[in-house]
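Backbone-to-sequence.
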């Protein structure tokens, strides 16, 4: 019998969601003082645009966007994995889905933060949509598992 590690992998996914924020802050700190008091203020943004080299500021923006997107997709991924786990899907399949989603998010972040050529934005979007499709697939499989179990009662 295979142990279900999907919730452990989900915890790693949550941590991964915050990696782009760390990258964003470190990118700014390499060139300017980071305003932790009010980092989202428009005056701080304007000051950073003036003081930070354009390529570094662009990386900062992409890292912030990757962080935001990661947090936006987290509820879908968490719901899918929790549903699959508690619906009683086979542990090896739930584990595989969890690892796949974790790797998808890592690739998404790497592409978003690391690639500064706009012509590769489509690759990032493709990786994103594959993650959404995979999450919804896991969720539907869990829903089917529940529906078939209740129908059999």
């Amino acid at each position: 019998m295979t142990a279900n590690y999907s919730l452990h992998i989900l915890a790693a996914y949550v941590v991964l969601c915050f990696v782009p924020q760390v990258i964003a802050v470190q990118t700014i700190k390499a060139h300017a003082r980071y305003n932790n008091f009010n980092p989202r203020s428009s005056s701080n943004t304007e000051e950073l645009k003036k003081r930070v080299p354009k390529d570094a500021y662009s990386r900062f923006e992409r890292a912030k966007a990757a962080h935001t997107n990661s947090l936006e997709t987290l509820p879908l991924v968490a719901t899918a994995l929790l549903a699959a786990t508690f619906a009683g899907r086979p542990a090896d399949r739930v584990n595989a889905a969890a690892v796949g989603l974790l790797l998808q998010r890592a690739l998404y972040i790497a592409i978003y933060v690391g690639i500064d050529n706009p012509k590769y934005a489509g690759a990032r979007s493709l990786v994103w949509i594959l993650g959404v499709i995979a999450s919804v697939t896991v969720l539907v499989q869990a829903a089917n598992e529940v529906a078939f179990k209740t129908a059999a009662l």
